[in-house]
Amino acid sequence: MACAASTRSGAVTSASADLRRAAGLDPEVELRPERFGALAYDFGTRRLSFVRRRADAVRSLNDEFETGLDAPICLTWELTYACNLACVHCLSSSGRRDPRELSTAECKAVIDELERMQVFYVNIGGGEPTVRRDFWELLDYAVAHHVGVKFSTNGSRITPEIAARIANTDYVDVQVSLDGATASVNDRVRGPGSYATAIRAMENLAAAGFTGFKLSVVVTRENVTQLDAFKALADRYDAQLRLTRLRPSGRGAEVWHELHPTASQQRELYEWLLAHGESVLTGDSFFHLAGYGEPLPGLNLCGAGRVVCLIDPIGDVYACPFVIHDEFRAGNVRDPGGFARVWRESDLFLELREPQHAGACGSCGLFDKCRGGCMAAKFFTGLPLAGPDPECVLGHGERALAARGSQPIPRPSVDMSRRRPRRTPARACNESPLEVIPAR
Amino acid sequence: MSSIPDQLEETAVEPEPDSGENPPTQPSGEELVVEDLLVEDVSIDGMCGVY
Q: CA A220, CA A177: separation in Å to the nearest integer?
């Protein structure tokens, strides 16, 4: 399909104008050409549409995605490893700032590149991204350069003034992290005081009139019984509930075995998600559960290096945010050719876009549904990538874990966890992790 | 089309009536026949590699 690039502010070519009119697209919808047609992203509804000729639609979209896109549709950018919390499951082992962190100018150069590649928006995280002194400057720069921003925060910097500022900025979305619908459940994972901090942030966002922000929850063995309470909490603030899967990544490797939902809880989670449809966001988190029946909303495949990737605070590019390990490092944005070259030409990403082997799952009747599950979950539990997910709905992963015994498992390449305090607090919980980095 | 996953919404694209307000576009290398377009929607709003 002939279709040239358009931008919200720039010229629109005749072909994309035809497409835009044909598909009844709003002028604010951005179009991006792809080899199989075009992607259309609506910044208002945050929905992605794939436009192609019926005659060319021989392969499913999942099959198209598995061979990679010209640019990611979901790019996670961890701006800093610095964090004022020390969550036990932190996927990036954050805590201390890396002195090699990208400078403000380097971050802006990356944003310029993302604009040229028509990356519709970036998911910004960390660490706690708002502790970067230039965070708001970078956010404004991205929006001004047609790269939407969704950032995740523990809420510690979301004051009433900041909430009002965010509410008045187009193309910005916020995810407030909370891993328990009660303080006791949440604070065991995210640290003392973090529940109250997150609730205060949501109150500030709601008071500022920011609707539709996200309440982001990592589903664990301890909070899976609170799904209705999380939904009620999100509804109370006119927010939307987003659930994501606990991975054995970063510090999560140390707690995964005790915190990941049990097999029966996985089944309950699947049924709950099915019942709530698109009112609860999950992205591509739970495609490994599709073996239970019909697929859940969202993408049902591992998009690592194909449609998603990670840029870490020092500019390293990984196939996926959950595999911060040298084996999955594709390059660095500081390398010649920058991010675009890493995305389009790195050996790792090109390899991931080749047909993957199902391995031990090849003979399973459910493979077309779950596609073997999550690469990161397998890698950081020491299971072969061509084989079952550790949370395989048929129990194959559990048996594979038992069979592998105590063989060493890969460790994350990065650990910026703060050192444990040498002196013992006089009382438990009398030192708030929120006070480690003072507010500006 | 059977190869489209169930979770994707398939939308038949109907041509919009020409209001006459838009100037005629130049033909691209390949004419688009709008009835032949397939629009498939998927929500990526929850996709994010951040806790």
A: 14
pTM: 0.86
Give the tokens for residue A12: 């629109």
Alpha helices in A36-95 (DSSP H): 61-66
A127 near A313, Cβ under 8 Å? yes
Residue pairs spanning A and B at CB distance below 8 A: 172
Q: Select the highest-mean-pLDDT range: A194-203, A426-435, B17-26.
A: A194-203
| B:8-47 residues touching chain A, CB 8 A cutoff | 8, 13-16, 22, 25-30, 32, 34, 36-47
Q: Which long-range contacts (CB under 8 A, 24 or more apart) does A232-239 make?
A: A233/A178, A233/A181, A233/A202, A237/A202, A237/A203, A237/A205, A237/A206, A237/A213, A238/A206, A238/A211, A238/A212, A239/A176, A239/A202, A239/A205, A239/A206, A239/A211, A239/A212, A239/A213, A239/A214, A239/A215
Query: Nearest-CA residue of chain A relative to B30?
Result: A2
Quick: pLDDT tens for A229-282: 999 999 999 999 999 999 999 999 999 999 999 999 999 999 999 999 999 999
Q: What is the pLDDT of residue A85?
A: 98
With an 8 Å Cβ cutoff, are B16 and A1 in contact?
no
Share of chain A above pLDDT 70, in %: 89
**Contacts with B22 from chain A: Cβ below 8 Å:** 21
d(CA A15, CA A293): 40
* Distance between B11 CA and the closest CA of chain A, angstroms: 9
ipTM computed for the complex: 0.75
